[in-house]
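Quarterly update, task 2.4: S-adenosylmethionine-bound model.
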Amino acid sequence: MSNDEIIQSHYKIQAEKHKDSPTSTMEDVIIRQKELESIFSFFSLREVKVIANRVLEIGCGNGYTMQQLAEGHPNTRFHGMDFSHDLLAIASKREISNGSFSQGDVRKLEYADASFDIVYTERCLINLLTWPDQQKALSEISRILKKGGFYFMIESFTDGFDNLNKARNELGLDSIPVAHHNLYFNKESFKEFISPLFNIVDPAGLGVVENTALQHNFLSSHYFTARVLHPLLTKGDQNLKNTEFVKFFSFLPPSGNYAPIQAHILQKK
Ligand SMILES: C[S@@+](CC[C@H](N)C(=O)[O-])C[C@H]1O[C@@H](n2cnc3c(N)ncnc32)[C@H](O)[C@@H]1O
């Protein structure tokens, strides 16, 4: 199977199983909720509000996130694009007065240079299974953004993932493998590659020190609870998901660097 076939067939199954549900592509309800809070926090930043006329979600899946955002921001035009025909068919049935959807490939975007103010992704670029493909995607996102525009990325990185597995191993738990349809970013290579294209914006510099939803490690405490403490106490019962124990600790602020999924605000140079 080619890499593209792996992705199309994985999301065909997701589309059949989860249809238009928020659990599509993410069965951990706390991660979905915290990702939404993070994306909403990003769109509430003053620096974002003043420029957000045309917004693109790349890898919009079944369109759940984009619908929530579009309904909350009626004066902004949203467009969602995705590689999976099956997920897109579900997204396209959503009635969003200020939104539209189309099929496409982030490695070769069919939009003019500087045509969007904001781009965001929620676990999309990790579906590109080689680093050169991920580099193409980052270059394309930079190309279609206006100068000063933002790319808000929720994607996975090996540093948080390695720390998580180290914590598991110390307590006698096996490492979690990376899913067959994912490739996580190496932080050093990522930073080096994007440096001519983007500045990484520290949310503290935007006056949102107290908004932990925008910290890059916004999921760290949750991952530590759900993937280290909880399996330890339940002796690794994989069927136990979204328990009250895990929910209780989800009220903690983020601490440490134990989550593969991270949020980063990039500003086009
Ligand atoms: C983990 S899912 C997340 C979907 C959605 N953002 C969500 O939160 O449910 C990743 C999405 O990226 C899409 N994707 C994968 N490769 C892509 C590509 N080359 N171009 C555009 N989208 C792609 C997949 O089809 C899938 O919908």
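Highlight for this quarter: The chain has a mean pLDDT of 95.
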